[in-house]
Fold these 2 entries.
Entry 1:
Amino acid sequence: MSSKESQFDYNDRYGIKPSTSKLNQTWVRYATLFALVGGAWILWAGLHHSNPAIREDLISFTTQDPRNPVIRYSVQRQNGSQVITCTLTARDIDKNIVGQIDDSIPAGETYIERTITIPTRADAVNAGIARCRIL
């Protein structure tokens, strides 16, 4: 007996046919399409969210007078003709909001630095920017 005849193959014995290449090609096509669509979406999401219409940054805050903390922050907007309102908050030691104001920024420059005092109803330990929005 030659070596080819002596090898036993379970697939031949039980009638299992090898998978067709057409089935494998279909799976590869769907996987490639999914990868392209997913990659395009990730690229779009990254570029879209990395360049927001308004970007606000807290520069500093001081609580030397705990009833009137002072916050210094900057706002950068894409369009200088937009009117922006920023909500500024002051919090106490338990992280409760003890003071909140809306600071309206008129149309003008695209980069603005502001220093604002937030009146509070109790002693504040920190201050921050809750959000900024276009009106």
Entry 2:
Amino acid sequence: MQLLRRGDSGPAVAEIRAKLEQFGLLGPEPAENAGHFDREVEQAVRAFQQQRGLITDGIVGSATYRALREAGWRLGDRMLALLISTPMSGDDVIALQEQLLELGYDTGRPTGVFDEQTERGLRAFQRDYCDVPDGVCGPATLRALLQLNARRVKGGRPHLLREQELLRQAGPRLRGKRIVVDPGHGGRDHGVTVAGVTEADLMWDLARRLEGRMAATGMEALLTRRENTCPTEAERAAFANRAGANLVLSLHVDANRSMHAQGLATFHFGNGSGNTSTVGEALAGYIHRELTSRTALLDLGTQARTWEMLRLTRMPAVRVEIGYLTNLGDRRRLLDPVFRDVVAEGILVGVKRLYLQGKDDQPTGTFTFSDVLARELAGETRIR
């Protein structure tokens, strides 16, 4: 869709204003500002973006527009079912997923997308409490949910406990772990491009370096694209889900109009309302600390986002923004193959730290790839 920002006007802006009024973020529209994207609308958009884990730029693009539409649905507004070509999504789907989880039916992390796992959880609930287990959330299913949830003590975020238990069961060794590595952009989509240097090429090179190191430790590393292809974020997430990956690592660089913008940031799933991948957050932290300790990149912290690659994956996913290609210092580092080796090593060690879960661990920045490889090949679970 066309980007909408301050100064724009028309029916699309009027729709945006109406949504923001509905959510209590904007007052009634003055007659003189009918359909106008003014300063108040921009501030309301920023507030909404912050609430939903989006980039808070005050501009309505495809991601913000999707979130505005999804936020308008309440459970019971419509029938919910699995649609393969265009999956249903919205806050009503999140509510359904959370209620089923509260009752002990596994729908995975509440993503707001009605997928196969949501349907399985719904059918299991219907087999226990409804006459027809058709996988459609209609009036009869809603009545059963309402009656059961009214009698239950709620809370506890069961999906977070499942995610943490899966991590515990996986054990500390890297061997046998299946990791999806996602080099950003690709094909005709070069991503950030500065002075002939492209994000797609740099991240492809980094992904191959990381893939090689992972394979050497006995891990199975799968790339989401080939050198000359560019799947959508949803397609990359679907690939990871089909592969049954343990983790997803998405690799990117950033850009800014200011040449002074620089640094490293890592991202995990989180929607601003308490729904967060705690294992993804932990992995983002491990990788971030390893990279900031090994490189001269400015520390921009770890943050929660609802980007599709983080939201649609059924396993913990982390996106790493490795510097700004528009910054001279960061660009020089990224162009250095030795620097990319350091980054690949830091990411691998961050993954190892996640599986160690704090046991037999060592100060940040002290492990090397050779250390990890030697212990893995020797069948040891302890890094001294």
